């Protein structure tokens, strides 16, 4: 069914739900897993506090290490990729294209209404530009 599944992972409970679903799908279809964490940098912040972006990258790497441990505990292996960029959604879409994934699995914070309009939605933007199917994993 799927040969390569990419999981957008940010260390939140929502991305943990996505990871859980991706692990299940990978087992069922014997797919490879690609865990992608995006350290989204802010150019203005970098000018004021350059070390802040390094901290964000280190946190992203630590989150992915924990996720990779969960994958290993489930009896699977995975590739891990940390991307430092100004746009998470662009990084996820481009990584999916370059890595030729069959499915992207993402969590959602479940924002609606005004909060969604003001803050935007990385998941919604990925859905709109993805080169493959996107599974949005619900999180109770």
Summarize the structure.
With 140 residues, this protein is α/β, with parallel strands linked by helices. The protein has six helices and five strands. The protein has a single domain, classed as HUPs (Rossmann fold).
Write the layout of secondary structure elements.
Elements: E1 4-8, H1 13-29, E2 32-40, H2 43-48, H3 50-73, E3 78-85, H4 88-99, E4 103-107, H5 113-119, H6 122-129, E5 133-137
Parallel strand pairs: 1-2, 1-4, 2-3, 4-5
What characterizes the major β-sheet?
A: 5 strands, parallel
Q: What is the CA-CA span between the terminal residues?
A: 27 Å
Helix content: 40-55%
Total helices: the number is 6
Task: Explain the overall architecture.
By secondary structure, the chain is an alpha/beta fold. It has a single domain (4-137), classed as Rossmann fold (3-Layer(aba) Sandwich). The chain has 6 helices and 5 strands. A 5-stranded parallel sheet has the order 3-2-1-4-5, with helices on both faces. Helix 1 links the parallel strand 1 (4-8) and strand 2. Helix 4 (88-99) runs parallel beside helix 6. The longest helix has 24 residues, at 50-73. 30% of the residues are buried. Residues 114-119 have low confidence and may be disordered.
């Amino acid at each position: 069914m799927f040969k390569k599944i990419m999981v957008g992972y940010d260390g939140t409970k929502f991305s943990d739900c996505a990871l859980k679903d991706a692990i299940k799908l990978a087992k069922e279809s014997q797919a490879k897993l690609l865990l992608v964490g995006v350290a989204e940098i802010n150019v203005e912040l970098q000018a004021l506090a350059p070390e802040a972006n390094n901290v964000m990258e280190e946190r992203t790497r630590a989150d992915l290490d924990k996720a990779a441990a969960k994958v290993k505990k489930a009896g699977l292996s995975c590739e891990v990729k940390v991307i430092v960029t100004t746009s998470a959604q662009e990084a996820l879409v481009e990584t999916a294209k370059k890595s030729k994934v069959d499915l992207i699995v993402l969590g959602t914070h479940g924002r609606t209404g005004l909060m969604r309009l003001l803050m935007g939605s990385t998941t919604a933007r990925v859905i709109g530009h993805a080169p493959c199917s996107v599974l949005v994993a619900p999180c109770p």
